[in-house]
Amino acid sequence: QTLLQGIILLPLRAICITFILLLAWLSASIATFCQPRRGFLPLKGWRRRMIQTTLSSLTRTAYFVMGFQVKVKGKVASLAEAPIFVAAPHSSFFDAIICALTGMPSIVSRAENLSTPVFGTILSSLQPVAVSRQDPDSRKNTVAEITRRALSRGQWPQVI
């Protein structure tokens, strides 16, 4: 019986996750459409709210469809309390759960990730700090950008 459930549930889950991913891509595309100087200026107003609410909800829904249920114990630190939020070790797709639960903060990511189809658009909407492993000054530039955003007095979202 469990094999029969798996045969039915696996394709159903894959279809649902694909649909959720396409909705996330559409939301990210709308929120960043005609955004001047993308990545240099923070998203504001309806664009930022759309990213926070829509992508956070869709990410939570995707993990629920995959069978994960996450409960938060305690209180998530606000932007004023913690402009930089550290999550470690960050090496898997579970990092997206943290992003969804903390209101879709900016993240630090490899620059190459921004050019991947679908995921690159979603990632770009989070206004990441891009790290280039080919650039010898990238580490210094990344620290400077994180510091600039942390000291922006709430203009930029939290950085994770």
Automatic annotation (TrEMBL):
Pfam families associated with the record: Acyltransferase (PF01553)
Domain annotation Phospholipid/glycerol acyltransferase: ranges: 70-156
GO terms, biological process: lipid metabolic process
GO MF terms held by the record: 1-acylglycerophosphocholine O-acyltransferase activity; lysophosphatidic acid acyltransferase activity
Localization in the cell: Membrane
InterPro entries found in the cross-reference section: Plipid/glycerol_acylTrfase
GO cellular-component term (any): endoplasmic reticulum
Source domain of life: Eukaryota
Chain segments annotated as transmembrane: 12-34
UniProtKB keywords: Acyltransferase, Lipid metabolism, Membrane, Transferase, Transmembrane, Transmembrane helix
SUPFAM superfamilies, sorted: Glycerol-3-phosphate (1)-acyltransferase (SSF69593)
Family, similarity comment: Belongs to the 1-acyl-sn-glycerol-3-phosphate acyltransferase family.
Protein's recorded name: PCAT2 acyltransferase
Organism listed in the record: Sitta europaea (Eurasian nuthatch)
Gene that produces this protein: Lpcat2
